[in-house]
Amino acid sequence: METPSAGDIAAANASNGTNADAAGAPTVATDKTPLEKLQETVEKNPLDFNSWVSLLAHVQSETTTPRETVEATYDQFLEEFPLCFGYWNKYAQYEYSLSSKTALDGSGPLADSKEAKNNAREVYERGVVAVKHSVDMWMKYCEFLIHTLHCPVDETRPILERAVAACGADPLAGPLWELYIQLETVNNDMPRLNQVFKRIMHQPLRNLEEFWEKYNQYVLAQQLQTLATLEEQKALASDGEEIMDEGLLRVKIVNTVEAVKNKSIETVYHRQAFEAGIDRSYFHVTPVSEAALKNWHSYLDFEEAANDDSRCEILYERCLISCANYEEIWLRYVAWNEKVRGFEAADAVFQRAVTIFLKYRASIYLEYAAFLESHNKLQKAQDTYMKVLSDVAPKLAEAFLHYCNFERRRGDAETAKTWYERGLETVESQPEVYAYVTVSYTAFLFKSMGDVASARAVFERAVQKIDASVLLWLNFIHFEINAGDTNVEIVSRVSHVYERALEDNCSLTMDEKNDLWFQYVEFMENYGDNVAKVRELRSKEMAWKLKNAQHRERLIKVLNFEPSSTSDYNEVFA
User: Fold this and answer.
1) What is the band of 543 on the pLDDT scale with cuts at 50, 70, 90?
2) Where is this region: Disordered (predicted)?
3) H-helix or E-strand containing 19?
4) What is the pLDDT of residues 444-453, one digit of tens each?
5) Domains of the chain, CATH where assigned
6) Which segments of 524-574 are extended strands (E)?
7) What share of the chain is helix, strand, coil (3-state, %, to 5)?
């Protein structure tokens, strides 16, 4: 009987769901649980929003999931997506529900009533810090305090005050102010309610006219001393009279409030087109539409031109709820703060971007480092570069080049050279990137350090490693044209580079070599001192074209050092 091979055993076991080692001994399959699979997915890609949603749904739907696992999952998710107010609310509601859930061992509830309430409030507090300018987040918190916990007014009012201070001027903040009105109405504190109504009239709310109607109804039911203090009444009295007809005073009080309301309505009117262009006021991972993004920029232009710093800040914060993933908005907000409020304010915005919302994006760190350097915060700038090179994007060529230029600007040439070399080692497997770094490195050696020999050596090393980059060859040629002391030396060295690039064993494409032949002849005409050599070179060019069936005419793209053809010309002028 034939003995089965290890491969046969593996195949047979695979068909019945078991595994075996090479010797044939069966091993027990250890399939991962759905929870483990989802956890592994989000660990590999923390920005996989849909997998996070599935994971959260899973841990809450499974009654056997430990409380610590649910809490840790929410904490990790909200660390990645802190603007998701709905999940802060779900997390808080989960904490509140623990007092009604029995522990798996049957020992009692997972949390007593007091602990559950406190934990829920703590989550809401974290939520309103994370999404400070979200009307929805504050509404969830305040409704929980009022309708679920039935907190006394002295506990609830300070939270509502924080809410309207944070986002009461948002055009969509009407529900928040309505909640404030309800609180003071139930509390039967009419003087406070009067002040709330007056404050509302200063806000550019979409439904401000509705509040104006409510205020008029409120006025009819109130005594004069509720609507205005004695000092306010005296100020409203005409000709300095001590006493004025109550009816006239009421009219003056209402007219004063109406004047404020009308000014706010005018503000609403001037901005209604911009407000209509906002397609969402909440955060989501899906992109904002191009039209909406353009509208945000136009709206910000409008507010900045109006020179109202408070309104500008409010609008930027509103914008960053839905556009938190857009680096261009963060950089614009930084620039505005830097201009209007100075370094500290701009730095605070950058800190939010790099530590929370764009913490995986190297480009924002590079912008931050440049910002710090421009304000002479050199150590912090260096730390920021190191964060990118050690953690965020350790293989990003652009990061190496930015850091090398940083060291060059502050006069540390040796450190710059060290990091250029590290950069070349890191990108060695990427030919075009290697060429890009080489060009920057040689420019540094030649222009900044005046070290022609070292720059040439770097070019030589590069073309031996990657001879398929036309960018590299063209810059090598350009370097030799500028590095020579005499015309004879220039012609000799440049010709040598051209000849090497045009060798049959060089990996450049035929089109690229065709362009190089054209440039080589042109160079010799401009720099050579012997027309016979020019004619000889033209003959070589023609022989090469015949040998390689190259009949294409070359059109020069000087600035980009790119190969091109007659077809390119036709595309441009078609």
Assistant:
1) confident
2) 1-30
3) strand 19-20
4) 999 999 999 9
5) 1-31 (no CATH), 168-266 (no CATH), 427-574 (1.25.40)
6) none
7) 70, 0, 25
